[in-house]
Specification:
disordered N terminus, L-arginine/glycine Amidinotransferase, Chain A, three-stranded mixed β-sheet, globular, alpha/beta, about 200 residues, 2 domains, 10 strands, about 15% strand, 5 helices
Amino acid sequence: MTAKFTENFSLNNAKIVNAWNEWDPLEEVVVGSADQACFEPTEPGSHPKLRDSAIADQIPFPGGPKPQAMLDKTIEELAGFAALLESQGVKVRRPEPQDFSQAIQTPDFTVANQYCAVCPRDVMITFGNEILEATMSRWARFFEYLPYRKLVYEYWHADPQMIWNAAPKPSMADAMYREDFWDWPLAERHARMHEFEFCVTQD
């Protein structure tokens, strides 16, 4: 969630969420976290594969928690990015810790683990004085808003002009997906995507 936040506190008018463009000086920003990140599991909305096509069909995509050595490097990079922003006078906020290794079960789906909180803007975006919370189309990302919930509540309680909207949560039942999408040849997949046919249907 990269956005400009203007702090103009008074007794009757505390304007905090105030992002009308992306050209003004950045004052406050949310930088993601790689803590306890996991590999995204295979599910109807996502069939991850290794990027090296020569071995992608021979070696399955890894599952579960990411190796700590990998996480340590990512955590270091994000901390360095946050420190750089702070050195320029930007207030940096971070998401709350979350155990992404926990399985999710709802009446419509079950998934072995969750994903991560590295990408705040996948979950939220700021328009003017509104924070819009997206819904997700993947099982493993269903609860990805939770690491940011405390922060959004803080803005909401502190700024009486802030609007907080959340898109409706989909069922993510099987009818929401074209799972054969992943079996189409890549050229056909790209062609159909130009016709707005994705693995996710309009259900």
